[in-house]
Structures are given as C-alpha cells and as structure tokens.
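Task: sequence design from structure.
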C-alpha cells in the first residue's frame, strides 16, 4: 500500500471516529440545557440525566467499542437503532430540550444502517417529533415532509461520496499492483536478456579460442611429434622436445577445459546431478584414479547460474586433484539442503597449505561463487589430503 493510500485510510478512519463521537457532544449539550432550564424537581432532572447516560453507554457499546459492526452486522445495528430511538423518545417525553438530539438520529441512520435500511431509519427518526405532547400533528407532518427528504438526500450524497472514495482507492491499489507486476516482468525480461547476452558472448569466446589458440597448440604438438619421425635425436635435444611437447599438450588440455568452462556443456541436456556425475566419470577415465559420486537430499530445479557455478566448481576441483594431488581416491558429494546446495570434493593426496593457494583457478572459483553470495572453504595440509566445500544459495527457477 502506498503512502498516499495509507494517508487516505487514516483520514477516513478519523472522519468515521468523529461521526461516532459527535452524538456524545450533542447529548451533553442537551443534558446541560435540560438541567438548567427544566423547571421539574431535581430528582426528575437527575433521572433524566441517568437515562441520557444510558443512551451514551448504549451508543458507546454498539458504535464506538465495536466499529466493525457499523454497516456490516445488520441485526446488531437494527437493535442499536431501535434502542437509540427508544432512549430518544423517553428523553423527549421527559424534557423537550432533547429534541436537539433528534438530528443526530438522522446522521446515525446512515452511519450505522446498511443499504436501504438507512432511509427507513431516517423516516423512523421522526418519531420523537410526533410523540411530543401538544404537538400540532398536521404542522409537524408538513415540516417533516420537507426535513425527511432533505436529510435522506444529504445522507445519500455523503454515502455516494464514500463509495466513490472507496472505489478510487481500490482502483489505485489495482493500478499500483499492476505497476509492480509490470516492473517485475520487466526485470525478468532484462535478466533473461542479460543471461542470453552472457551465454552468446561465452559461446563466441569459446569459438574464438577453439579456432585460434587451440588450433595453434594442436599444430605445435603435431610438428613436435613429426620432428622425431625421420631419425632418432640426441639425448639433450630429445629431452627438450619431450618437454616442449608435454607443455604444449598440457596447454592444449587447459585451453579445451577453458572452452568447456565457457559453454554450459552437459547442463544443456542434463540436470546438475547428472552433469557432475558425468564430469566425475570422465575425470576417472582420464586420470585412472578411483572416484565416487554421491547425491544427498532431494534434487530440485534451480537457476542456471547456480547449476553452472556448481558444475564449474566440480571441474576446477577435480582438475586440481588430477594435476597436483597425486591422490589414490576422490569422493565427490552433491548435497541438496533446504536453502543451499553444497558440493564437497575430498581426496587423499599430497595436500597443500591453503594460505598459499592463490592460483588463478581457485581465485576464479571463489569469485564465481561469491557472486552468488556463496562460500568456498578449504581444508588441507601437506601430506593430509584436501577437502573443498562449495556452498551456493538455492535460487529456484521462475515458474
């Protein structure tokens, strides 16, 4: 709800509260006039004041203490209005000064009674005028024939204005809700366009790397292998060529891994768990090291950025194990929790000092995970293996 709507509601509540309290002031005024100008004995005036107090309590209970009944609980309000007229008739019969209170009955008919019952209440409000002793009925009826329609007209106009105000407030609320929904849809479109642009740029970079650096390294490896074919080479030269060939092959593997990191790869056709399982299987066949993969919790569809981040974390962790750890066993666990996805990669390899781990791969992994408000934790020591835990918040797919 907007600030303007809140101010409008507070203004409306203040007016309703004022209408509910106004009869107390008018009743107090009539009691004062009655006490001052009534020639009756004091006892009579005190009893009249007691009845007025009863009327005040009656009005307080039904209107002030339970404002939600007004215009909604028809039976309670009908009982209230009958009691209001009964109190007013008794007070008028005891002292005609209480005729000053009768106009309040016209107002209260529209404040408390719903629909057409309010107009019946306006007609019934004329009863105190008719029961007053010594009243010229013909003249009174003539006067009431003018006053009653006028009161009904004013009350109907006020009620119509209230309905129009409520209609406008509801319309404004609907417009605000529509604006919020449009803003949400626009944000979704912008996000989808951003993700599409990122995906296209990654695909372009992958093509460029594949067509330039990867092809160049492949050519270098081919040329180095061709050098040995005509004749055996001397020891030092052969060693240098072997070293160059190994470096070229290693660089080619790294370039291909970078190309894979730029493309969604397995996630295009597989869920996250299947993609990580495929990564573990491929790594096990490549390095000949025993590797297990376990999924815990209930898998659920999440945002593509979360899936890519977890998959890249698994690839980076396994790549580091294969290149540096000299491990005999690796355990990979993917855990779906209530609000996070956790990837754990543990090996029994050589380990390292986490305080000195500043390689580009691990730095890039930390940056990627932190971009999603996630965390990366390392537990390792020289000779004690390594445990990497990657935790990423669950960002569910828009439905």
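Answer:
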């Amino acid at each position: 709800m907007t600030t303007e709507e809140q101010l409008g509601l507070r203004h409306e509540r203040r007016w309703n509260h004022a209408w509910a309290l106004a009869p107390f002031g008018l009743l107090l005024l009539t009691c004062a006039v009655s006490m001052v100008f009534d020639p009756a004995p004091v006892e009579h005036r005190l009893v009249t004041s007691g009845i007025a107090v009863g009327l005040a309590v009656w009005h307080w209970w039904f209107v002030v203490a339970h404002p939600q009944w007004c215009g909604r609980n028809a039976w309670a309000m009908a009982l209230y209005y009958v009691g209001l007229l009964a109190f007013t008739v008794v007070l008028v019969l005891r002292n005609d000064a209480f005729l000053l209170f009768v106009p309040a009955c016209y107002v209260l008919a529209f404040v408390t009674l719903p629909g057409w019952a309010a107009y019946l209440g306006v007609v019934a409000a004329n009863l105190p005028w008719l029961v007053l002793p010594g009243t010229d009925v013909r003249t009174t009826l003539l006067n009431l024939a003018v006053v009653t329609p006028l009161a009904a007209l004013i009350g109907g106009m006020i009620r119509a204005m209230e309905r129009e105000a409520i209609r406008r407030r509801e319309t404004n609320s609907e417009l605000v809700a529509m604006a919020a929904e449009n803003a949400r849809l626009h944000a979704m479109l912008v996000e989808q366009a951003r993700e599409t642009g990122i995906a296209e740029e990654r695909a372009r970079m992958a093509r460029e790397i594949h067509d330039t650096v990867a092809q160049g390294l492949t050519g270098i490896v081919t040329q180095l292998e061709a050098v040995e074919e005509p004749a055996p080479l001397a020891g030092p030269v052969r060693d240098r060529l072997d070293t160059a060939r190994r470096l070229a092959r290693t660089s080619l593997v790294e370039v291909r891994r970078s190309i894979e990191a730029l493309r969604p790869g397995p996630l295009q056709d597989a869920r996250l768990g299947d993609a990580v399982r495929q990564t573990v299987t491929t790594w096990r066949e490549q390095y000949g090291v025993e590797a297990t993969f376990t999924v815990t919790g209930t898998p659920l569809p999440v945002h593509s950025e979360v899936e890519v981040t977890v998959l890249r974390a698994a690839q980076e962790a396994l790549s580091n194990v294969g290149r540096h750890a000299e491990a005999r066993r690796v355990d990979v666990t993917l855990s779906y929790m209530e609000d996070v996805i956790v990837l754990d990669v543990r090996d029994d390899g050589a380990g390292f000092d986490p305080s000195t781990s500043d390689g580009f791969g691990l730095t890039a992994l930390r940056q990627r995970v932190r971009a999603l408000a996630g965390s990366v934790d390392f537990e390792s020591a020289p000779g004690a293996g390594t445990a990497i835990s990657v935790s990423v918040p669950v960002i569910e797919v828009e439905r």
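Residues 137-227 form the longest helix (91 residues).
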